[in-house]
Write a structure and sequence with these properties.
Pfam families: Cu2_monooxygen, DOMON. By secondary structure, the chain is mainly β. The chain has four helices and 24 strands. It folds into two domains: about 55-205, Sandwich (Immunoglobulin-like); about 215-380, Copper type II, ascorbate-dependent monooxygenase, N-terminal domain (Jelly Rolls), CATH 2.60.120.310. The longest helix has about 40 residues, at about 5-45. The protein starts with a helix and ends in a 6-residue tail after the last strand.
Length: about 375
């Protein structure tokens, strides 16, 4: 007869075996993927230090910190351009906090570039420590009179589940930091990174794996239209401002398909204010719509505050998303005989009212949406479900 102690031991052994086999499976899968990706990469050469990349995406996280990136197969290449002569950091947070984050830290000292794959322990210590596995690969690094530039690449999934965060189609929480000082010459020892706690900036939610807009800008059949607000006076506090602007599209005599839209930031300051943009079709009397289209936009309480039927949502953008591209077989139908007037509803909210880096003179905003549409119709019409 089996004793309780033996049952407990057997259960632990079984659990250990399951954990062992699952870990082995993940490791083998990562190794197989790496072999497959390496073979594919030979056909599509990864970027080198001498190559001037045609970047897919570029975002200013603030006035002093720009990131550019490009995805080739299962590799993603980043370039950081930071206005500092000290160290810089860039990485990903699991939940918006710094604990448990995956970071790359680098700096340039006397012409030599130091670059390390690091992580932040969950103990609460804000200083990133060096990873046992270095999965971020430096391509180039240099500094000029004002900026530090680092270019590096990594796998979308490094298979380092202990210290790295996989880059997926989900919203990624971007962490970044920079300081005016370098660590002591080449030092990676704990406690050598100058003032890490105050070097972090607020995280930014972003989608990294979306398709680039450049592929749509070189086709004659694709039209691009910018819908911009006009001189919106932004709030100096953390109050929410909702702005409604009416647009008239009068030269769409035939059906078109909307295939992509993306935000337009009027200035680096706009990044801190823009929260949501919704574009709606409007149906109502011609005179009312025409008057609103001719007038400047105004503060409102959303589409319900407009005495017109502006219910059908055409496009909806939220903070953290760079753009939205419809699948290749679908497009949102647009035709002036059905809906000639469109209402753009923009939500502004300064999440950091005490942020001293926001120039007070840049308080009139002209941000909006850039839309891509074509007369070459796709097989299916898209729609938006509102709940």
């Amino acid at each position: 007869m089996t004793t309780p102690t033996e049952v407990k031991y057997t259960s632990l052994s079984l659990s250990s075996l399951i954990t062992y086999f699952m870990s082995s499976f993940v490791l083998v899968r990562c190794l197989l993927e790496d072999v497959s990706i390496t073979s594919a990469a030979k056909a599509s050469t990864l970027p080198s230090a001498d190559e001037d990349l045609n970047w897919d995406h570029s975002v200013d996280l603030n006035e002093d910190f720009r990131i550019l990136w490009k995805i080739i197969n299962q590799d993603i290449t980043f370039e950081i351009q930071a206005r500092t002569m000290g160290y810089v950091g860039f990485g990903f947070s699991p939940d918006g906090n710094i604990a448990g984050s995956d970071m790359a830290i680098g700096w340039v000292n006397r012409g030599h570039t130091y670059f390390q794959d690091r992580h932040i322990k969950r103990s609460g210590d804000p200083e990133p420590v060096v990873d046992p596995s270095q999965d971020y690969i430096l391509i180039l690094g240099y500094e000029n009179q004002t900026h530090t530039v680092l270019r590096f690449r990594r796998k979308l999934n490094t298979c380092d589940t202990m210290h790295d965060i996989a880059i997926t189609n989900d919203t990624m929480r971007i962490l970044y930091m920079y300081n005016e000082q370098d660590p002591p010459h080449g030092s990676a020892k704990p406690g050598r990174l100058p003032d890490p706690a105050s070097s972090f900036r607020p995280y930014r939610p972003m989608l990294l794996t979306q398709r680039a807009s450049s592929q749509y800008e070189h086709f004659d059949h694709i039209r691009i239209l910018e819908l911009r607000n006009e001189d919106v006076e932004l709030p100096g506090t953390d109050d929410t401002l909702i702005w409604c602007e009416m647009f008239k599209l009068e030269d769409m005599k035939h059906k078109h398909h909307l295939i992509r839209y993306e935000p337009i930031y009027d200035s680096p300051s706009s990044v801190h204010y823009l929260q949501h943009i919704t574009l709606r079709e409007c149906h109502g009397t011609h005179q009312e719509l025409e008057e609103m289209a001719r007038e400047q936009g105004k503060q409102c309480m959303g589409a319900r505050d407009i005495p017109l039927a502006c219910n059908a949502i055409v496009a909806s953008w939220s903070r953290g998303s760079n753009s939205f591209t419809f699948p290749a077989e679908t497009g949102y139908p647009m035709e002036s005989r059905q809906a000639k007037y469109y209402l753009m509803e923009t939500h502004y909210n300064n999440l950091q009212p005490d942020l001293t880096q926001l120039p007070t003179r840049q308080m009139a905003d002209n941000s909006g949406l850039k839309i891509y549409f074509t007369h070459i119709l796709r097989p299916h019409d898209a729609g938006v479900l509102s709940i």
